[in-house]
Design brief:
The protein is an all-beta fold. Helices cover 0% and strands 49% of the residues. The chain has strands spanning 7-9, 16-18, 31-40, 42-47, 53-57, 62-67, 70-72, 78-82, 87-92, 95-100, 105-108, 116-120, 126-129, 133-137, 140-143, 150-152, 164-170, 177-183, 193-199, 207-213, 218-224, 232-237, 245-246, 253-259, 264-270, 279-284, 289-291, 300-308, 314-320, 326-333, 343-345, 355-360. A 6-stranded mixed β-sheet has the order 1-32-3-30-29-28, with no helix packed on it. It has a 4-stranded antiparallel β-sheet with strand order 4-5-6-7, with no helix packed on it. A hairpin with a 5-residue loop joins strand 29 and strand 30. The protein is globular, with a radius of gyration of 21 Å. The two termini are 34 Å apart.
């Protein structure tokens, strides 16, 4: 069961301070979050601008929706994404489906059968892979194979302009270029798509993935010389003349996974000298990089920030040893102006608390 207590961890001072009335710990740093533990086995995938969180419970193999402290369970096996209209993309009986919150109805993403789907935008356009990369909309499936000599790998996020982040690979080459696929007419996808091929971060990076694009055209992704990493995170503008900008270059491996309308980027990283594991991060286009792993409970081995909405709310998952397992989390930015009285505490077992207000230092 989720606890309603809220704490804050002081990284620099190594102490905990508490507001006795609201049970909220506070400290003065540049970024503060209220941390909510969504529970064991909960794996959040996405959050929309209204604050609705969707994902899957690995203990029940059911999709969930979390909002304002309450869980609900739509008739889906898993949920991959939610748009700002309240449509949830997932699967039901193995078929790509959309659950609409307002009507409590599930509809099949026709005519897709056992396809892989990844995201949907506010228009209801769904990106995925069905024998090739596609966008499904209004009962039609539109192929993104822009050339008969190319093979385009499964794609990632789709923005509200119908632009899809992904990877372009020219057959029979094993290497892949970061790319974005833009519809020639967002209101008529039958008009086809145009590919913007970014190429490679460097000659040593044969694999280059665009993972997400926001409506302003900021693209994020990562590159590597091996499918097993390490991964070099980057961001760039959509224009062909733009260049790759490194993200978290001081780390061993960085994988950006999502970007919001404020150009805030989240994902996962591995610190130098770390053979395995990793943490969650928040980065900004100005180069600021925040380690979000400080809230992770004892025993955590890895953490990942999977999505961020327009208000800066972040969802992700921590994974630990067998006794800890996986836990979903929600980070909600809080204002320093909400800080009231404080009292110093010591010897507090953070592992016993499931809702935390975390302050993170800027790198």
């Amino acid at each position: 069961m989720r606890s309603l207590s809220t704490i804050s961890v002081a990284v620099s001072a190594l102490c905990l301070c508490i507001n006795a009335e609201a049970q909220t710990h506070v400290l003065a740093t540049k970024r503060q979050f209220r941390y909510e533990d969504l529970g064991a086995g909960m794996v959040p995938a996405d959050i929309n601008d209204a604050g609705y969180v969707v994902g899957q419970s690995t203990t029940t193999n059911r999709a969930f929706i979390y909002y304002n402290g309450q869980f609900s369970y739509p008739d889906l096996e898993t949920a991959y994404a939610i748009n700002n209209v309240g449509q949830v993309l997932g699967k039901r009986a193995g078929l790509p489906s959309i659950y609409t919150i307002s009507s409590n109805q599930v509809s099949w993403v026709a005519p897709l059968n056992y396809a892989t789907v990844s995201d949907l935008n506010d228009r209801g356009q769904v990106s995925g892979y069905d024998g090739g990369p596609i966008v499904a909309w209004h009962g039609q499936v539109h192929s993104l194979n822009v050339a008969s000599t190319s093979i385009i790998r499964p794609l990632s996020k789709i923005n509200n302009l119908g632009q899809v982040a992904g990877i372009f690979r020219a057959y029979p080459s094993a290497s892949g270029s970061a790319a974005v696929y833009s519809p020639n007419n967002v209101s008529d996808l039958s008009a086809g798509f145009t590919v913007t091929n970014f190429g490679s971060l460097s000659p040593a990076n044969s694999l280059n993935f665009s993972t997400a694009i926001n409506d302003a055209g900021l693209v994020v992704g990562y590159s590597s010389g091996s499918p097993f990493g390490p991964y070099f995170g980057w961001y760039r503008a959509l224009g062909r003349s733009a260049s790759f900008q490194p993200l978290g270059a001081q780390y061993h491996s960085v994988q950006p996974l999502a970007v919001n309308s404020r150009n805030e980027i989240v994902g996962k990283f591995v610190a130098p000298g770390t053979a395995s594991g990793g943490g969650a991060f928040l980065a900004e286009r100005n180069g600021s990089f925040f380690d979000l792993s400080q809230f992770s409970p004892p025993g955590t081995l890895t953490a990942s920030a999977n999505s961020i909405n327009g208000s800066g709310h972040i969802v992700g998952v921590t994974r630990g040893n067998n006794s800890i397992g996986s836990h979903g989390f929600l980070l909600i930015p809080i204002s320093k102006s909400k800080t009231l009285g404080t009292q110093e505490f010591s010897n507090i077992q953070a592992s016993k608390l499931s809702a935390e207000a975390i302050a993170v230092d800027e790198w």
